[in-house]
Amino acid sequence: MSQRIEKNGLQVDAELAEFIDEKALPGSGVKPEDFWQGFSSLAHDFAPRNNELLAIRQTIQGQIDDWHIVREGQALDGADYKAFLREIGYLVDEGLEFEIETANVDPEIALVPGPQLVVPITNARFALNAANARWGSLYDAFYGTDAMGSLPPAGGYDRGHGARVVARSRVFLDQAFPIENTSHADARRYYVDKGALLIDDEPLKDPSQFVGYTGHPKGPDSILLRNNGLHVQLVFDRAHPIGSRDQALLADVRLESAVSAIMDCEDSVACVDAEDKVLAYSNWLGLMQGNLESTFQKGGQSMTRRLNDDISYTAADGSDATMKGRALLWVRNVGHLMTNPAILLKDGSEVYEGLMDAMITTLIAIHDLKRDSGNSVHGSVYIVKPKMHGPEEVAFTNEIFAHVEDTLGLPRDTVKVGIMDEERRTTVNLKECIRAAKSRVAFINTGFLDRTGDEIHTSMEAGPFSRKDFIKRKQWIGAYENQNVDIGLECGFSGKAQIGKGMWAMPDKMAAMIEQKIEHPKSGANCAWVPSPTAATLHALHYHAVDVMAVQAKLKAGGRRAYVQSILDIPLAAYRAWTPAQIQREIENNAQGILGYVVRWIDQGVGCSKVPDINDVGLMEDRATCRISSQALANWLHHDVVTQDQVMDTMRKMAEVVDGQNADDPKYRPMAPDFSGVAFQAACDLVFKGREQPSGYTEPVLHRRRLELKAQRNH
């Protein structure tokens, strides 16, 4: 049992208390006695309201379950259903028009559309990669992926493939930065004369796209351009292997890529106790102080990664200027549901983890606010708050951060909040959710993975759901995606805040991403999630091709496209004419995804990883994808589409498949042949006890089983 230290009525794990007292508080300007008094007040005074909100979730879910049970076998009457949801308080009346009042928002959030990375904060190397992914090499992104249709040949550098990369990059330059009377493909010289960029003596068609340069104007080391708010850096180097063979000495095309990044304390991590939370908070502190480092082995050599410096250059008007070298960082706290044993209250109960995250991540962010050149140039702290159910819970979040600001001596609304539109009760009340935090909201996002899991759980008693791939084809999801943008624009997000879209889940399928993910900026979203820095560079191409701000203006003028009635259309299986083979395939697909994710979560504490699917295609998996698969199987079990024996037999079969897929991992513990390990049991709990999990969340099972395993190892 870990040692605890009493702090104003809080029983704090000694490791966490030491971190806060000796690392987080010094240099923040916050007195320890003020911090612990305010934290104790937050943890104790806000817990009853937190309990009440969770009880409301449970009550409402019970009422919805009962409503469907009474009407079993009847066709859904949309008007009747909507009236019922309004009667029980699930659906609230939409108020008068308003616009958000959020102030002091950094340009990366308010004005610059672009890719957004989400990474587990517990992995310092990944966190640094994401922060440094503000800039990425287009040459590297094209060369090392299938973005141009095929991977490079095996072996050393292939000149033919490299030539295709250079040609394809110049096509991009011609599209984004056209030149009068010539092409970037034919250019031999780039230089600056009297504040203008000339290419073989010809100007850009839009001279205002020239931002600045480094080096000598007659032979620059680099040229900085801007299109649709995003920057591109042309790098010249006659000594570089590529530049030395290029007629213009162009060695690389570097794109402003991940304009913002979310450092995640939630779905992509496995933080179940003080040890895990201290790791997460320590990495966040390193990012906010600017001194985070990660040393690792690569190619047999030791490497140390640090945060990139800002870029200094000469502006077009001849003045000295700087460009940010790092992404603007959000931190994602956990939601309202989970507690954590890192801190106990006076009555011996665990602290709500969301309250703990709010206080500690904001405290840590003060270190950035005190720096001359850090994360926010406008003095804001950016926190994503996930898994909120309706306006009451958003209002509660607003109250939490007001208390945190008062405790830490921060001006009101210093903390900007991102609202994840990933729960059904938030979707159907989105405008009122935004209103509840109108002075601090700076982000909304369609988290379609969690949203699908909640869709299944909310309507569990309505009947069997369609197969996963077919759920995506139903009208509710298109209406959900459209309404999110529409309401964001109605509430004045354009030019003030981010409207985001979800993750591209296949990090090795970049050609497909380039083809499909352009739909996100076309939809009016000014950011969308990508799984890697390379994917961010390639997705940045879409924001050069699409002027998102113009799209938003057009959409806003056209009015709302989607309404609650369509979103409430439940994606049940209409015909259920599945063959036994189709049913078995669906069980296997869900079981394999659950097991592949859970075994790493429980055994290795890895909350997000590339998990091979049933076809050996690597998919980025986190708790959201696990939630869908477990709820899908729980739904079919509940409605007798499948039997418990059938699912259990498939779980064992897929465990052997997952064991084979992980055979090369020395840290991996096989689940077969005895199937008695904690990880396999956790996966089974998610399925066979899935119907009874709050909102269908995976966290309660995963946390309990991970703590069980850690306890076994400690003894």
UniProtKB/TrEMBL annotation:
| The Malate synthase TIM barrel domain, residue ranges | 329-562
Among InterPro entries, the record links this protein to: Malate_synth_C_sf, Malate_synth_sf, Malate_synthase_TIM, Malate_synthG, MS_C, MS_N, MS_N_TIM-barrel_dom, MSG_insertion
From the UniProt record, report the name of the gene that encodes this protein.
Answer: glcB
Ordered alphabetically, the record's keywords are: Cytoplasm, Glyoxylate bypass, Magnesium, Metal-binding, Oxidation, Transferase, Tricarboxylic acid cycle
PANTHER family reported for this sequence: MALATE SYNTHASE G
Q: What does this protein do?
A: Involved in the glycolate utilization. Catalyzes the condensation and subsequent hydrolysis of acetyl-coenzyme A (acetyl-CoA) and glyoxylate to form malate and CoA.
- One biological-process term from Gene Ontology? tricarboxylic acid cycle
Q: Which residues bind acetyl-CoA?
A: 118, 125-126, 268, 305, 531
Query: What pathway is this protein a component of?
Result: Carbohydrate metabolism; glyoxylate cycle; (S)-malate from isocitrate: step 2/2
The segment(s) forming the Malate synthase C-terminal domain are: 582-676
State the name under which the record lists this protein. Answer: Malate synthase G
Q: What is its main location?
A: cytoplasm
Outline the subunit composition. Answer: Monomer.
Q: Which residues form a coiled coil?
A: none
Record PTM Cysteine sulfenic acid (-SOH), positions in chain: 608
